[in-house]
Amino acid sequence: MATRVLLLMALALFIFPVATATLHVKGSVYCDTCRAGFETNVTFYIEGARVGIQCKERKSLKVAFYTEGVTDSTGTYHIEVENDHGDHICECMLVKSPIKWCSTPDSGRDRSSIVLTHYKNGIVNHLHYANAMGYLRDQPLPQCHNLLKYYLADSDF
């Protein structure tokens, strides 16, 4: 009888896991110095950029969770997220650039969807990576024209 009770308790923990784990989100923020829409050889990563993580309820789209972090000297942010957000739609987003001449968010590269759970999705790691996000420089660098020609040299365009 005691064996059955222990087996049922173990099964209950497996089916209904405790969702209080801390998840870690890592990503980077860059300045697109060529306004190319992607990272190039002259891209640099921004220290001190503010990044937000927002999770919304699937049905109502009401914000259920929000937190912010700041990039380090390598343009990388590490943000801790408490609890599992498996039932939410979550994304990282640019909040503010510390550089006045590189502060326009690149549309399409200004946010990154992220899965903040590790139950029922095959992700067993507590570290979750977000795609790099970028700001556009006000005026492209002079060498960008030649650099972009080089990148597109093998293209069919």
Automatic annotation (TrEMBL):
Highest taxon of the lineage: Eukaryota
Keywords for the protein's UniProt record, in alphabetical order: Disulfide bond, Signal
Signal sequence extent: 1-21
Similarity remark: Belongs to the Ole e I family.
Official protein name in the record: Pollen allergen Ole e 1 family
Pfam families found in the cross-reference section: Pollen_Ole_e_1
